[in-house]
Amino acid sequence: MNQKLTNYLNGVFTPYDGVKSVTELKADLHSDLQERFRELKAEGKDDETAFKMTIESIGDIEQTILEVSNLSRSLERQVVTNFSGSSLAKSDFAGVTAHKGQFKGSALHGSDFSGADLTGSSFKASDVREAIFDGANLTDCSLSALDLRNASFNKTILVRTNFSKSGLDGAKFTGVRLTEVTLTLTDLRRTIFEGCLFDGVDFKHSDLSGQCFDGQTFIGVKFDKAALTEASFKGATFRNVSFQPGFALTNKYYRMIKTICFDGATMDKLTYAALKGMEVDLSKVTVI
Predict the structure, then answer these.
(1) Which of 249, 245, 244, 240 is nearest to 271 (CA)?
(2) Alpha-carbon distance 288 to 272, whole Å?
(3) Dist. CA 62–CA 52, nearest whole Å
């Protein structure tokens, strides 16, 4: 009868072979059940009755095993997704799922993250030059103090993503909807934006001098305290967009804001009024 209990447990635990915590649970449970079986036999129960009562005593064991397995695998994934201080140049991360991954002080030059789900991950003080994030999910990711030169962001999912103090020279954002993204304290003069929609984006304290945003859409965007000398917004669409100086309007800010080209742009009345009040040339702008 001891072997019958062993066979029963083997059958229940087979789908979870290799999960360490489940293996430990099986060993403990096997010992407890054997002891329970012996107690029932000592009470005068026949083998079949003792076996049935022993199995019933453990309740919904399959649900318990599943919960233990899921927790164990979750913890294992957390260990695997800590790549801080690693040398991972040209690594293949395409299509992986690495929620809350840690990439601090890592060498990731030329690595491929295309199609990866990196939700909640943190990249800090790492070399991410020429990395590919095409189609990747960077929701709630933090990218701080990085070298992202020539990185590719084609149709990348950017929701509440935070870029700060990072080098984005030559980095290319194509066909991207940036939703509640922050691009702060970042040099964006040579960053490429093509076919993008900026929704609730904050460019606070970033340098956008000479940047070309022609034909792109801006909704609820803040260009507060951003450098915009000679920036171009030809044919762009604006809704509730803010252009605020660091302090009171100074002659320097007036001169800078007047160098921006809005020819052919379309904007709502509030954005238009704010820029008009700063004596910006809006003669070729269409008001919605």
Answers:
(1) 240
(2) 9
(3) 16
C-alpha to C-alpha distance for 179 and 86, rounded to whole angstroms: 30
Q: One-letter amino acid identity for 233?
A: F
- Which residues are registered as beta bridge partners of 188? none
Helical ranges in the chain per DSSP H:
2-13, 20-42, 47-56, 61-80, 251-257, 269-277
C-alpha to C-alpha distance for 267 and 206, rounded to whole angstroms? 23
pLDDT tens-digit map of 65-122: 555 555 455 544 444 578 888 888 999 999 998 899 999 999 999 999 999 999 999 9
Q: Would you state the structure tokens that stand for residue 138, as one six-digit string?
A: 């960077």
Q: How big is the chain by its Cα radius of gyration, in Å?
A: 29
CA dihedral 104, 109, 111, 114 (to 10 degrees): 90
pTM: 0.71
| pLDDT single digits (tens) 45-67 | 887 887 777 767 665 555 555 55
